[in-house]
Amino acid sequence: MKAVFLDSQTFSSNISFTAIEQQVSELTCYANTTPEQVLERCQNVELLITNKVLLTAELLAKLPALKLICIAATGYNNIDISAATRLGIAVTNVSGYAGQSVAQYVLAQILAYYQQTSHHNTNTEQGYWQKSESFCYHGNAITELAGKTLGIIGYGDLGQAVVKLADAFGMNILISERINSPEIRQGRVSFDQVITQADIISLHCPQTKDTENLINRDILAKMKPTAMLINTARGALVNSTDLLVALTTKQIAYAVLDVLEQEPPPANHPLLNANLANLKITAHIAWASSEAQQRLIDLLSKNIAAYKNGERLNRLELAN
Fold it and tell me: What is the 3-state secondary structure (H, E, C) of the chain?
């Protein structure tokens, strides 16, 4: 199969693509691809690999040689799956590669906030400890995680991985049922209960019409004023304008965002220019440990091998 990777810069330079190369006759990698470049780069290509490049129904219809699209991610909202199914183009995604990486990120952020490690390091750098009349120098309060309530919204592989680490710290866990669900499954609680009772809320659900703008003004108003919000899922789950107000007015205590609704974000994004001490933003890297990146590539190669063998591994299909 002749293959093209449209946005290989998604991966760090130390990640090997050998597993994919072994499954194809030719692999061409482009660091990034603009919408205007997609059609030209995909002509006569049987296999297309992408993470975030938008593939519309109109575009797919112009690629008669295309047989397989491998999404180098779990989310697939950038692909018109219905059109691909109609055109006989197989589409696969990958999952289960980033659990350890995302869980480590979430717990690292929780620990940084509750342990105040950066603050206490700065105190020493500024000489406060050296001038102390006591053997220690107390700055911001340090709070134990044991007994804190962690709310998980989205209980797939990633949410489960976070819970496993949180359990080790003795945290209480609330797993949210889907919003507005008429039934509560065993082991879960209502969405409202998570929102009102959790000390920390961590988002791990996909972006759908039901989850877009999930965390908005009304929901933020129900959260504890001491609550911490962490979003490693999709930026569109959180209303940025409403979150900015909530953080500015101390309606909630703290937020950590690894994702924004547009990526890369514009330089004038209101949250990036807010200069708030109770907001931390990172560049969509929670998933991106070296180990997780390599696992993803290896899973992609398995999807390709399965397709070649007539198997339907990780196949995505939607009705027209």
Answer: CEEEECCHHHCCCCCCCHHHHCCCCEEEECCCCCHHHHHHHHCCCCEEEECCCCECHHHHCCCCCCCEEEECCCCCCCECHHHHHHCCCEEECCCCCCHHHHHHHHHHHHHHHHHCHHHHHHHHHCCCCCCCCCCCCCCCCCCCCCCCEEEEECCCHHHHHHHHHHHHCCCEEEEECCCCCCCCCCCCECHHHHHHHCCEEEECCCCCCCCCCCECHHHHHHCCCCCEEEECCCHHHECHHHHHHHHHCCCCCEEEECCCCCCCCCCCCCCCCCCCCCEEECCCCCCCCHHHHHHHHHHHHHHHHHHHCCCCCCEECCCC
| Residue found by looking up tokens 């091998």 in the block | 305
In the beta sheet, which residues pair with residue 83? none
- Cα→Cα distances 78→14, 115, 242, 303, Å: 26, 38, 25, 19
Query: Distance of CA 291 to CAs 82, 91, 156, 160, Å?
Result: 33, 24, 20, 19
pLDDT in tens, 218-263: 999 999 999 999 999 999 999 999 999 999 999 999 999 999 999 9
Q: Catalytic residues, which ones?
A: 234, 263, 284
Phi and psi at 110, nearest 5°, equal: -65, -45
pLDDT for res 170: 97
pLDDT single digits (tens) 289-317? 999 999 999 999 999 999 999 999 999 98
User: What does the alpha-carbon distance between residue 47 and residue 107 come to, in Å, rounded to a whole number?
Assistant: 37
